[in-house]
User: What shape does this take?
Amino acid sequence: MKKNMIQKAIASVTAILAVSAMTVPAAVSAVNTPTINKEPAVVIQTPTDTAAIPVNKDIVLFNVDGSLILSPNITYSYDITPAAVSTATITTYAPGDLKDDGITPKDGTAAITVKVKPGVIGAITTANDNASTADVKEASISFGAEGDTNTNDNTTKHKSNKESDTTVILSNKVSSSMTINVDANKIYDTNGDGQQDNGPGVYRYKIKDVTTDATLTASGIERKYQTDNNDTIYLDVYTKYNEQKNGLVVYGYVLLKDTNDKDNVDINYYTETTIPETLKITGFDTDSENTDTYKDQTVAKENLTSDAYHTYNVEVQKKTDGDLADTQNNFPFTIALSNENVKLDDFFYEITKDGQKVSARTTSLGEGKLTDTEFNVALSNSGAWTLDGSTASTNLQLQNGDKILITGLPVGTKITVTETNNTDDVYTVSATNLKQAAETGTDAITLKIKDGEQTGTSLSVDSKKAAEMNAALEIKKSDAGDVIVFTNTLKDISVTGLLFSIAPFAAITAAGALLLGLFMKNKKRGEDKNRI
Assistant: This one.
């Protein structure tokens, strides 16, 4: 291949590689195939022995009401192997054979065609590689507390798509990445004896997503591929001799996709009018969602093929009712969340007390950062989460009008709410779900006395006893989050009871008056009798 095979240098790759599928025809001819002369292919302006090739990935975010949410916690796994190429070719032009636009070939110039070679696995290095599998290189991309490269830490919130919207904004996503290092000298000299084992040319590698279904489920990730082969992309690494002709250098690379998982896909020269650029991609990414142009940033929801993270919200409110109900008393609450499939981390909550958002947490603030009134939760592999208001520092001791809002809960999350009566009075306690009322016409939640047998939609709760939801409530997949309201009622006391309290004293007074009257009457009669 000629030294000047590649056209003008193109800016460094901006590829954001997310698991995404493109509905395109199989590439077996000059039609529908890309070449290195058009982005997102990367031409290295100063060829080097080694090249660090970024492989990025996106997850599209959803929330029940489009709230800002945190990243899911997941690590994707990939196997990198040599592509089984045998007949694939690359056809292009030398840079000197192109017109000033750097795209159109000059009249009378001939195209250059070379055969694609299987990638040399010994030249590839990745993080997290298992050394025992010499013919496979393992790599991974992580999201969440440590892996979300769109953020400085796990306290940054991201824009999400509203669950009910029919059009998905592809930029409402999180991105993370891995790096594949290619050492051209290890392609040239695989044995390390200083002799050439492989010559210059294009070497193709196969990058396959081998993340298990269990890992996806445990992270709340929905994968919706249009075909079975959208878990694979290809990497073509362009090499040529160094100046001394005793080694190789890398001068470009291309990521591409073939929906038929065909290692032998041909790469032919792109022209604006004859060959659409439908297979050259930015990787496993949302930009490749649209088959017409990877620059499109929206897609119909039913056509979304990227991985998606669906989340929901729940709010718990406190109310008191009745003239004797203490509106200033802080009732301890306990919020318990559980999910049979998903690790409950990477969501956040905020508590509002007396009209003000409160917390004991402060943080350096920036765009998208959690405020000092919001807690982010990262609990590792717990599968459940509890916030206990009996600990005053949690601020989950709610009085009339207070509330807690939990945002960004993954699908399948269930909530159980418990309230303790910390007063000396007996309160009537009831609970409602406002969202449930809007959907079903009934809002009552069945409660039970904790550690007791009594159940009902309205319970008398003695001092120091607790009322809790009789069954966990699964957070709704609806247009608005669930709103659970706990109401404590203590009505004023009837004054009729006072009559019974004063009756004995009234009887004694009446009897005394009667006796005094009789005494005075007898006294007068005696005086009349003794009168002269």
In short: The longest strand covers residues 50-63.
